[in-house]
Amino acid sequence: MRKEIMLMVLLFLALLELDLVTGIGNQDCPEQWYGRACMQRCNCRNQNNCPVCNNQCSAGFFGRECQYSNTVEEESSTVSYHIVNKTFLNHRSPHSTLEIDFGLQTFFTWMEICFSKNDTIDHESMSLNFSTSPGENVRSAKSCGHVYKLVQKIPACVVLRCEHYLLVSKALVYWKGFKNVVAVHVSGGVNVALKQRVLIGRRPDTTPGRQHPVLGVVDQQVNTSVTSYSQSGQELPYFIVVLREPVWIQRIVIESALFPVLNFKVQLFDERNNATNTTYIFLGHSSKSRGYKHAFVSSRVTASRKVVIHGVANDTSGSLTLTEIFIFSECRPHKFGPLCKGSCSIRCLDIACHVNGECFQCLPGMKGEHCLEKESKNGMKENSAQARHRLAMLKEDLTHKSDKMVDRDLAVVFGGAFFLIVLLCMAYFITNAMFSTAVFSRATDASQDSIQTIQTKSHPTVDHYVKNKKLITSKSSFESNS
């Protein structure tokens, strides 16, 4: 019995730990949805392949599971890029230059440049430069912090990632040699406004009275719009998007129907209800909804739980109709997942990974999606000199990392392991104590029975004395009579 109890406790704890770490527990999801609680929308070109898209994504998305929005392909953006092959006066060898003009300011975290499979990529020669405001000259990315340079083999891409978040209007990348660029992706974040609550109100100082589904927010299968009306010009309609958990929000894209919006304002609120204002960066036309697309960015990145949208359309009715609300989040370095709660493997180079936890690049000698497998000596593609060079570059990169973040990740790992050990020890001692108590109880009962038997034999009871006294009295009477 003791072994069975211990096995049940261990099995329960193992399943609990597995569910917390990996997110197992997915249910059968409707079409175009997948993931835990069906919170992720499929952006594969072939909807039947989710979440394995094989880099075949719908327009406007890219990445392993096609969860990253690509600001280069956004309909309302003015992004264009081209390659200029020329030899610079200050360089002995020819260089290629990639220029990306965003027109207005946009949020930048990282970008991906993909080349032909046969090209040898000298990613260390790549230089990343930015212009932070329209009309400003391009300069070195000092505000970007340390630039992580990572190589992906399938497809053949180079990832350039900033240590910090920043707003840019133009990006320029140059590298040695002439390479055939086949794709350019600039990450606009992952949409977290999926199946969230949307509340509608007429006045900002009152509690919203009803809840309404929005295409792209509550449930993208419900083809309805969120509409709010204002009784006067001073009472602006407003929407509140309430997220399940705080999320790092950098960008909000809103599509309004039919008319442009006046007095448009978006605010972010944290769990303490502290407000953070956003900056309106562009207004464009949306061909999908025949309406207008508006984009906002937050210069101060903080974990937000609520998004409040104010505005009124330019018509006599004073109404505001929204057809799409996108809330884009980009995790801090070393984190992944829709809520940025997962930690990238420490065997990932620079501890950097995709939204699904897959490493951009492994440490030397490691392989696999999460870099958990060791490469065999025969399969090593790097010689010792290359390996030493990569280790040197890794040490240089690690000096630029945030020590606090690394310490926090290690604390979480060791804290989780310690918590699991404590639970196992508690389960063991509780089971042991229950077994010992049962044995002691049976032993005590047996001892009491033995003591009573001995006492009965060695110490006669009162009834025994009475009986003996009667016998003695009867014997004396008999002798006197005789």
Automatic annotation (TrEMBL):
Q: Which residues cross the membrane?
A: 410-430
What are the UniProt keywords, alphabetically? Membrane, Signal, Transmembrane, Transmembrane helix
Is Transmembrane helix among this UniProt entry's keywords? yes
Q: Where is the signal peptide?
A: 1-23
Q: What is this protein called?
A: EGF-like domain-containing protein
The record lists the lineage as: Eukaryota, Metazoa, Spiralia, Lophotrochozoa, Mollusca
